[in-house]
Amino acid sequence: MGSLNIENVKKAFGPVEVLKGIDLEVNDGEFVVFVGPSGCGKSTLLRVIAGLEDSTSGRVLIDGTDVSVTPPAKRGIAMVFQTYALYPHLTVKNNMGLGLKQAGTPAAEIDRRIKIASAMLSLEPYLERRPAELSGGQRQRVAIGRAVVREPKLFLFDEPLSNLDAALRVNTRLEIAQLHRRLKATMIYVTHDQVEAMTLADKIVVLNAGRIEQIGSPMELYNSPANDFVAGFIGSPK
Ligand code: ADP
Ligand code: MG
C-alpha cells in the first residue's frame, strides 16, 4: 500500500504563501514526478508530505489516513536528498542501517535488509567503506539504499541526481526506474530535468508559483499542454 491524497494544502512562511492550495491524488505504486521552476514550492510540498514541515491548512492522507499529527518517522515514508545526507563517520553499512537500529529493528533483520538492498544497488563491495571513500554516484546509491531498507510505502526523491555528472545521472536514473519496477512502491520524484521527468513518470505534476498548472501522463502533457507555461516546460519547441 502507498496511496497519497493531498487536499487543498497551503503553506506560508510568515506572510509569504509558498503553496497556494495543492490537490493531488497518487495511486499505490505510481511514479509521480514534480517539475517546475526553482522556488515554485516542490521541496516544500515534499517536506509537507514527509512531515518535515507542517502545512498551514489542508490535509495529507496516506492510505486514507490523515497523517497531520503523525510524526515523520511513523509515516512510512523515506526521503532521498540531492546532497545524500550521509554520516561521514559511519560505514556504508551503518549509514544504511542506522534508521532501523534507532527504530529498534533486530540486528539480524537489519543485516537481511541491507544484504538485499546492497545487491539491488550494486553496493556489496563498499559496505565497510566510509562516504569519503566513495564517488558521488556511489554515495547517492547508499542514500537510496538507506531508503530501501526502511521498506517505506512512499519514496520521496528531491532532485537526487542534480549533483551527478551526465553519465552517472543516466545510470542512476535507470537504477531508480528498475527499483520502482522491482519494489512496486509509490515514488514521488522532484526534478527540473525534462528527460528525467519524461522517462520516469507515470504522471507528471507541473508546479508554478505554488499552484499546479497541469497533471497528466508525459504524453498527455507533451501533446496537449494546458497552457504556454506547461508547453514551455515540457518542451514542445516554441
Ligand atoms: P523549489 O524546491 O521548487 O525550488 P522550495 O519549496 O524550496 O522551492 O521553496 C519555495 C519558496 O519557499 C522559495 O521562495 C523559498 O525561498 C521559500 N522557502 C522554503 N523554505 C523556507 C523556509 N524554511 N523559510 C522561509 N522561506 C522558505
Ligand atoms: Mg527544491
Q: Which structural traits does this protein have?
A:
238 residues; alpha/beta; binds adenosine-5'-diphosphate; binds magnesium ion
In short:
Helix content is 36%, strand content 26%. By secondary structure, it is of the alpha/beta class.
Task: Give your account of this protein's structure.
GO terms for molecular function: ABC-type maltose transporter activity; ATP binding; ATP hydrolysis activity. It is found in: Cell inner membrane. This protein starts with a strand and ends with a helix. It contains eight helices and ten strands. The strands form two sheets. It has a six-stranded mixed β-sheet, sandwiched between helices. A four-stranded antiparallel β-sheet has the order 2-1-4-5, with helices on one face. By secondary structure, the protein is α/β, with parallel strands linked by helices. The chain binds adenosine-5'-diphosphate (ADP) and magnesium ion. Residues 13, 18, 36, 38-44 line the site of adenosine-5'-diphosphate.
